[in-house]
Amino acid sequence: MANMQGLVERLERAVSRLESLSAESHRPPGNCGEVNGVIAGVAPSVEAFDKLMDSMVAEFLKNSRILAGDVETHEYQEDRNDLVISETELKQVAYIFKCEKSTLQIKGKVNSIIIDNCKKLGLVFDNVVGIVEVINSQDIQIQVMGRVPTISINKTEGCHIYLSEDALDCEIVSAKSSEMNILIPQDGDYREFPIPEQFKTAWDGSKLITEPAEIMA
């Protein structure tokens, strides 16, 4: 998913090429000639690819044109604080790539959200049924208005997550990241809790035990 746009482009180019090959291979029997070394009929590779495109890959391409438009709608936005996606569906995935100094609001309920290579991005969303992933990013602020089961933070410097009352059971999974904080609503305000960045591991005689390390002053 982290390179969804490149995958979509490669698949679309392959489809275009194979469509042209398929058209050539469907010429009338009296004038079939040779297509890619195959005499007459449809080349087996083209036929197999057509079947594939009619099933799972076709569905992937359909779902990759995410939410309010193509994937490009959520890429390379800068200094934008008015980005809003209001028409959403439960099966959709929001992919946000290389956005800087911007704020995006996603209304309704979506399957998952991916933030990839973004800087100084603010994300506000209502509900996610799957996961919110933050990858290779810096200074990200996320506000959960409804519910989300899991938030993953990977290779990110600075991530602040504001949870709602309904999202307090959210699981936070982090790796190779720093300056992460969870903000919990309390008495009309938020209380900040840092996510541990250092851990200590010890052998207890039968297995390894890992727990957050207390930072010594």
UniProtKB/TrEMBL annotation:
SUPFAM superfamilies for this protein: C-terminal domain of adenylylcyclase associated protein
Family: Belongs to the CAP family.
Matches recorded under Gene3D superfamilies: 2.160.20.70
Database matches in Pfam families: CAP_C (PF08603), CAP_N-CM (PF01213)
Primary site of residence: membrane
Topology of this chain in the membrane: Peripheral membrane protein
Protein name, as recorded: Adenylyl cyclase-associated protein
InterPro entries: Adenylate_cyclase-assoc_CAP (IPR001837), Adenylate_cyclase-assoc_CAP_C (IPR013912), Adenylate_cyclase-assoc_CAP_N (IPR013992), C-CAP_CF_C-like (IPR017901), CAP/MinC_C (IPR016098), CAP_C_sf (IPR036223), CAP_CS_C (IPR028417), CAP_CS_N (IPR018106)
GO CC term, one of those recorded: plasma membrane
Gene Ontology biological process: actin filament organization; cAMP-mediated signaling; cell morphogenesis
Superkingdom of origin: Eukaryota
Subcellular location field: Cell membrane
GO MF annotations, alphabetized: actin binding; adenylate cyclase binding
Organism of origin: Pan paniscus
Domain C-CAP/cofactor C-like: 44-195
